[in-house]
Write a structure and sequence with these properties.
The chain has about 325 residues and is α/β, with parallel strands linked by helices. It is built from eight helices and 14 strands. It has helices at about 60-70, 85-90, 105-135, 140-160, 225-235, 255-275, 280-285, 300-320, and strands at about 5, 20-25, 25-30, 40-45, 50-55, 75-80, 100-105, 165-170, 170-175, 180-185, 195-200, 205-215, 240-245, 250. The strands form two sheets. An eight-stranded mixed sheet has the order 1-2-3-4-5-6-7-8. A six-stranded mixed sheet has the order 9-10-11-12-13-14, with helices on one face. Strand 6, helix 2 (about 85-90) and strand 7 (about 100-105) form a beta-alpha-beta unit. It is globular. Mean pLDDT is about 90; it is low at about 1-15. Bound molecules: zinc ion (ZN). The site of zinc ion (ZN) has 5 residues, from loops.
């Protein structure tokens, strides 16, 4: 039984409180999917410091998290862990200057090779659009409004700092302080190829990041869907009974099993289409969300789930079998 102590944080009574204390000194920030935070976060208060797990989608949402932490403790945030390199888990990093940024080797590569160039391109494009709008001045009232909006957009982008993990690891890393142990674990490919989870063995809690979507169809943009199931099995093998997802409410072991079943069912649904030789378009156009998952959030991701599964199954079936051993030389 999960005893969730809710902190009001000055929110009106009708609003669901965002910060949940799930154990002594362990907090989850479960956010609305419609807000600017996008993904969940959490933090653990140690004897002398605080460990943060994920920082939301914007610097402002990261600031909100910092404020929420300040309402609980004045100990400094010493470590900020990024579950993976996606923007909705990392773009609040800059709200924690002075903290060590921690993540997998692969998440660091993703931020440097994907997110950083994407941000540079977006900023360059925003600058050039701004120059084009500025050249037409004084212009109409509509044009001036567009110019102001474009300036705001450029300013927002230019305030953003893309901060990759600096303390990285391949398989695992432990943080110990005052008798509490935090284990950061890479369990295998899944949502990306660099997801890590934060396990509190003493409290039987896991912050799972996007390896676990709770009652939601997952984002598979950078996923390895055929490997994801085994990675969720490794997640289920951890000694834990509370699982904080990257998206959705704090879950139980049964909720993680439901997500594991979803990945299994997705493969079972798509494989016959690949075996029959259906085209990708046919598969995406005809395979529907099973009733068991029809009430899950993010239904709009389902066609992309079918597509990714189709492509990976096709690749697997096309893989050349290993060559036979060459005959021994005489
Ligand atoms: Zn993600």
């Amino acid at each position: 039984m999960l005893a969730v102590l809710l902190l009001a944080l000055g929110l009106p009574a009708a609003e669901p409180p965002e910060i949940a204390q799930i154990a002594e000194g362990v907090y989850a920030r479960v956010v609305s999917p419609d807000g600017n935070a996008v993904a969940n976060s959490g933090f653990v208060v140690l004897e002398h410091s605080v460990v943060v797990f994920d920082t939301h989608f914007t610097p402002e949402a990261g600031e909100e998290l910092r404020t929420a932490i300040r309402a609980v403790t004045d100990r400094p945030v010493r470590y900020v862990v990024n579950s993976h390199g996606h923007t909705d888990h990392t773009h609040g990093n800059q709200a924690f200057p002075g903290a060590h940024l921690v993540g997998s080797d692969r998440a660091r590569r993703d931020v440097i090779e994907v997110d950083l160039p994407a941000w540079e391109r977006a900023l360059a494009s925003a600058e050039s659009q701004l120059r084009a709008l500025g050249a037409a001045l004084p212009g109409s009232a509509d044009e001036r409004t567009r110019l102001r909006q474009q300036q705001q957009y450029r300013d927002t982008l230019s305030r953003l700092r893309i901060l990759p993990p600096q303390v990285t690891f391949e398989r695992g890393l432990a943080i110990r302080e005052g008798g509490r142990e935090i284990r950061l674990l890479y369990l295998g490919a899944g949502h990306t190829q660099g997801d890590v989870v934060l396990h509190l063995p003493g409290e039987k809690i896991v912050f799972a990041g996007d390896l676990f979507f709770n009652r939601a169809i997952p984002n598979v943009e950078d996923a390895r869907v055929l490997e994801w199931g085994a990675t969720v099995d490794a997640l289920l093998a951890l000694d834990a009974d509370t699982f904080v997802p990257g998206h959705g409410a704090v879950g139980s072991r049964e909720d993680v099993r439901a997500f594991r079943r979803y990945l299994h069912d997705l493969e079972e649904l798509v494989r016959p289409a690949v075996d029959r030789g259906d085209s990708l378009q046919q598969a995406v156009g005809t395979i529907e969300v099973p009733a068991a998952y029809a009430a899950w959030r993010f239904q709009n991701f389902f066609p992309a789930n079918v597509q990714k599964m189709y492509i990976e199954l096709k690749e697997r079936s096309a893989a050349v079998p290993p060559e036979a051993e060459p005959p021994a030389k005489r």
